[in-house]
Amino acid sequence: MDALADLELRDRAAMLGDVLVLADLHVGRGAASTLELPVGEGEEMVERFGALCDRFEPAEVVVAGDLLHSFDTVPVLVEDTLAGLRAAAREVRARMVVTPGNHDTMLDVVWNGPTTPEYRVDDTVICHGHVEPEADADRYVIGHDHPTIAIEGQRHPCYLAADGVYDGADLVMLPAFNRLLAGVEVNRMSATDFMSPLVRNADALAPAVRDEDADETLHFPSLGEFRHQL
After folding, report:
1. For residue 155, what are the domain limits?
2. 154 φ, ψ (degrees, to nearest 5)
3. How many CA atoms lie within 13 A of 100 on its CB side?
4. Pseudo-torsion of CA 154, 224, 178, 214, nearest 10°?
5. pLDDT at 177
6. What global pTM score does this model have?
7. For residues 219 and 215, what is the distance between their CA atoms, to the nearest angstrom?
8. H/E run at residue 43
9. Beta-strand relationship, 184-185 and 147-151
């Protein structure tokens, strides 16, 4: 599949050339949760992000939206987590850019780094995916829907990809980087069930699931075919 041909997938993120792309960190989600031990927050998230930076040593890190999980207040722990993320990027001298998502309404309170609605890497445009992009591209890399797929009763965060499905362009949707988020099971979803307006043909989207223990990516048939195998 051309949409994934030059992407290296790792831990809910993707490496495109020398650019590390991840989406939907939703920093602050734990503070809004009733869970006593929010597993996607704070030190755990920073450690995972730091491990990705150490592995790939990217020149740039692009957050494809929803860095924050806040509409009207910013919990104290958010600043500590963001400081940790920035420090991990600095360790490898990576520039960190945010393409704001629909949850990033308070971003300017805690983030003084570069932001842009859409970020271009050669013929690929990275954005959150909650609104249609203005820039033309051969491929769009987005987040927003937090896709997961159920396989033999177990749900797994997944990437979704298809060639030529958005105005002739390829589309790649990243899973949520924040492990606290349950995600949306896409097995039987149609295009109208997705929140992103870039999804126009759900049947064409093919899931990819990372097996981090085995350090391999498992590729599955498109959702249109996959449904018939369930």
Report:
1. 2-229
2. -110, 135
3. 17
4. 60
5. 97
6. 0.93
7. 13
8. helix 42-56
9. parallel
Q: Which two tokens stand for residue 92?
A: 């490898």
Q: DSSP state, 10? A: E
pLDDT, block means (10 residues), the chain with 230 residues? 93 98 88 45 89 98 90 70 95 97 87 95 97 97 97 94 97 96 93 97 97 93 81
Q: pLDDT at position 36, please?
A: 41
Q: What is the pLDDT of residue 108?
A: 86
Is 3 in contact with 163 (CB distance < 8 Å)? yes
* Residue labelled with tokens 């996607």: 40
CB-CB contact of 44 with 88 (8 Å)? no
Residue 190 neighbours by CB under 8 Å, 6+ apart: 202, 203
CATH of the domain at 25: 3.60.21
Number of domains present in the structure of the chain: 1
The first and second tokens of residue 116, run together, are 């842009």
Question: What pLDDT is recorded for position 33?
Answer: 46
Rounded to 5°, angle at Cα 149 from 146 and 151: 160
